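Key result, reporting period 2: structure in, sequence out.
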């Protein structure tokens, strides 16, 4: 797949075939993704793989509960727009995908967010190149229960940064229209 085709096919996928992603393929994607640039080459990221739809549904329900509690505590929450979906018992924040990969890292690392975001982009491109679909599901990162985080294998002092679902897409939607880039200034 050439670069332009890769850019066109890397879409947010929210509808997956009922087919497991082999763990060795997930590991290959992770091995490709760690080639991402990162501050000082510290490579502060780690991964948690969840390849059980039943476990992902439990995690989805926990995330929904946490986000809804936040909305109730703060009616002006930016998450309020998702409230109708979150109150729907059938709604799964992970879109019934067969696999979830959490990209995690040390919470106190100054470059945690950009390092993990760059890695997430590489992860999604590596998956696309293999015919898989992904979606970074921000709603999937709201787990706060220390026992659940421990069960997930999240080390103390680490945080969930990028919950990315992975699977074989039923379809690949076309790229939505893009606005022209806003170049604020060119200094020469």
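The corresponding designed sequence is given below.
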């Amino acid at each position: 797949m050439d670069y332009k085709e890769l850019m066109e096919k890397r879409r947010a996928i929210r509808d997956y075939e009922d087919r497991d992603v082999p763990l060795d393929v997930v590991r290959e994607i992770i091995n490709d993704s760690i080639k991402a640039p990162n501050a000082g080459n510290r490579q502060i990221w780690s991964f948690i793989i969840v390849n059980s739809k039943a476990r992902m549904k439990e995690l989805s329900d926990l995330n929904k509960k946490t986000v809804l509690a936040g909305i109730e505590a703060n009616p002006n929450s930016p998450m309020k727009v998702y409230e109708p979906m979150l109150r729907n018992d059938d709604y799964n924040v992970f879109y019934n995908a067969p696999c979830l990969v959490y990209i995690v890292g040390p919470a106190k690392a100054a470059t945690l967010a950009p390092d993990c975001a760059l890695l997430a982009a590489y992860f999604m491109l590596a998956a696309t190149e293999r015919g898989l679909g992904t979606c970074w599901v921000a709603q999937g990162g709201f787990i706060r229960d220390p026992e659940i985080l421990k069960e997930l294998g999240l080390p103390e002092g680490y945080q969930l940064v990028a919950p990315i679902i992975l699977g074989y897409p039923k379809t690949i939607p076309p790229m939505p229209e893009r606005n022209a880039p806003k170049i604020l200034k060119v200094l020469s």
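The longest helix spans residues 53-73. The domain at 3-167 is CATH 3.40.109.10 (NADH Oxidase). This case is discussed further under Risks and Mitigation.
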